[in-house]
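Notes to self after the Tuesday call (sharing in case useful).
The group wants a holo model before anyone commits to mutagenesis around the pocket. I volunteered. Ligand is manganese (II) ion. Logging inputs and output together so the record is complete.
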Amino acid sequence: MTTPNQLLGGLTPADFLRDYWQQQPLLIRQALPDIDNPLSADELAGLALEEDIESRIILEHGTRPWELRRGPFVETDFQQLPARDWTLLIQAVDQFIPEVRDLLQAFRFLPSWRLDDIMISYAAPGGSVGPHYDNYDVFLLQVQGHRRWKIGQHCTSESPLLPHDDLRILRDFEQQEEHLLAPGDMLYLPPGVAHHGIAEDDCITWSIGFRAPSYQDILLHFTDYLAQQLRDDQRYSDPGIIPSEQPAAIDDASLERLQQILLEQVQDKEALATWFGRFMTEPRYPEMLNADDYADGDLLAAINAGYGLERNPTARLAYRLNAAEIKLFASGEHCLLPVSLLRLVQLVCNEDYLSAEALQPWLDDDEGKHLLLQLLSKGDLLLEEDDD
Ligand SMILES: [Mn+2]
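Result:
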């Protein structure tokens, strides 16, 4: 496993966050020198055949320039592809392949609720998804073969795009840097930086992507959440007004009353925390969380037999600690817990695997045991299974 400083090319996480994160690209040679590709091109193609896996193929010279095809695919789709200039993209591979998920441990210096997924791309020689920019940070890790990355200008939603129904390809690309990445090399890009990666050979790149809710989403979803907590009898009111000279006019005093209503509501910091924690832990594939009832006995028997609990790879967990309590967010829902459970909450949020040894002390704590049972029943945690 790589050390944090190796991962960031000799920078400490604090240096990286201060000088690069959200600001400027960083090329890191041999960020993961020992990376051992756990998924071959054939295995990636195999994933693209599966119903519940999001996959796309982009052909630079298809039935139209930059043709997008969406999975699931069938084997003959791959047999009919040209020898070069196409890319296969598979989303959220970290949720399906433990060896891919393990890489996320290296990014623990960032808030885990900001992480979105690891997308894997396989490209035939010349393959590319075109010059584009993303609205979120991304680390691009070269895992097999070589990719030439061209880095361009800063873009915004005003930047002109090629006419295309499905892909956001930049009309203009102003190249500023170019780097050839070999296995183990990694490129960090902040949001909005134009980039264009072209495969030199049989090329596999992992993209570690982040969640960045838009202001649109924040306003829309937070106010929707707030509105659900309000009563119908909480209404605009104007006691003490004076007679109108112009009955059709909306005056400043009326607008100020409205502003007061809005400001009072959105100022509730704990309501904001509750909404945000729920929103940022919403899983990409909620159907992969299988709710199932567990009894005390199931949990005790498993742990006493030495089995641990595994995090469901689909589950997203986060918490907020305030003076009075803990809010635990689990895959879009939340519960309130006593502060005495903080160590357990941190264990559950931070670890992919909870050993029987680590859990044992919590089985004597009614609230701790209840929390574990709740997470098991919701499907966020899973009982460890026999390997054979
Ligand atoms: Mn990109």
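Two things stood out.
The chain has two domains: 4-210, 286-383.
The mean pLDDT is 95.
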